[in-house]
Design brief:
The protein is of the alpha+beta class and 330 residues long. It has helices spanning 11-17, 22-25, 55-68, 114-123, 139-144, 185-188, 208-225, 242-247, 253-258, 263-269, 298-316; strands at 29-33, 45-52, 72-75, 81-83, 88-95, 100-102, 105-109, 126-127, 148-149, 152-153, 158-165, 168-172, 194-202, 204-205, 239-240, 260-261, 276-277, 280-282, 290-292, 325-327.
Length: 330
């Protein structure tokens, strides 16, 4: 007998999902509005939606959809993504798996928040995650985009990853992710689909007071610079090029020293702070944030991003690349 939640789906998808346990099938939802699950607050419905809260149940579902050819996307806390207004065909899984042990190697579910993981590492007097303070994302999302800030990157902490690939669960090394600046194979290549279940991170012993002070300084800088309106986080990647940084008039000395030209610097120099299309705007506080002023659509956001890219390219001859992922039916 076909479960009621599956009756409107294509027959091959029904066949793939029907053998799953009732605990999973009864929790499937249809036409779930994705703007309720993203920090940017835009996006249409997911054809099928599941909120995972157990790593093992998530693994069962991931194996079934991969073996059955059901299109699938995994969502963490919903930062760093812009869903289309038309929504997403197939299954969107909200990864709400949040178990973690920290002593001293962290074994953590991919759905665990970076901020809470830092707090646990602080309590255990372990250093390495101070840069994650204030980042509204999960471990899985951080791995996919190789998140980092203030000189730290998650790729530097990974010792192993629990993953479902082509319907098989396995443990892989960091090399499998092919990490690069704000990137990994899971952003670049959709011909090798995989779903992250969890990871082991190697942290180091530290002094609780020093860890707290470093994290407090980073948090203070974020509070002072970043907007309060809904956003997807930093929208464009920075440019790492020592020659370009040396030649850029007005770039702060610290960034010249690091060989980094920030997207915020370029966008600000183009006079785009506050520029808007519809209810999507370049933040007046931080030029590398596109914010939702109330009723922005995904189309507004993408059109604004395109305008920012073209303006920066015309002024500086530099092609900005989005850090935020576009997903869904555009």
């Amino acid at each position: 007998m076909i479960h009621p939640q599956l009756k409107l789906l294509p027959v091959p998808w029904q066949a793939a999902l029907s053998p799953l346990p009732p605990t999973i099938l009864s929790a499937l939802r249809t036409e779930e509005p994705l703007k309720m699950h993203t920090t940017l607050r835009v996006g249409g419905p997911a054809q099928l939606f599941y909120h995972a809260q157990s790593r093992d149940l998530l693994a069962q579902l991931a194996i079934a959809v991969q073996q059955g050819g059901v299109p699938v996307m995994v969502l963490g806390d919903g930062s760093n993504v812009c869903f289309s207004d038309r929504g997403v065909r197939g299954l969107v899984i909200r990864n709400g798996c949040t178990n973690a042990t920290v002593a001293p190697r962290a074994d953590v579910d991919a759905g665990h928040s970076l901020m809470r993981l830092f707090q646990k590492s602080l309590n255990a007097e372990l250093t390495g995650l101070e840069w994650a303070v204030g980042i509204p994302g999960t471990v899985g999302g951080a791995l996919v985009s190789n998140a980092g800030a203030y000189g730290g990157n998650i790729c530097d902490l990974v010792s192993s990853i629990d993953v479902i690939e082509r319907g098989e669960r396995k443990t892989v090394s960091p090399d499998w992710m092919e990490f690069s600046y704000r990137d990994s194979r899971l952003r670049r290549d959709d011909t090798r689909p995989a779903i992250l279940l969890g990871a082991e991170l190697e942290l180091s012993s530290g002094n609780r007071r020093e860890i707290r002070l470093k994290a407090r300084d980073i948090q203070y800088q974020r509070i002072c610079k970043q907007p309060w309106e809904p956003s997807a986080g930093s929208f464009f990647k920075n440019i790492h090029d020592h020659a370009l940084a040396d030649s850029m008039p007005g770039l702060p000395p610290l960034f010249k020293q690091r060989g980094v030209v920030t997207s915020a610097f370029l966008i600000d120099k183009c006079g785009l702070k506050g520029f808007r299309i519809g209810d999507a705007a370049v933040s007046a506080r931080h030029a590398n944030f596109i914010v939702n002023m109330g009723a922005a659509t995904a189309a507004d956001v993408r059109a604004l991003a395109a305008t920012v890219r073209s303006t920066v390219n015309e002024r500086f001859g530099i092609s900005l690349e989005e850090e935020v992922l576009y997903s869904g039916d555009w």
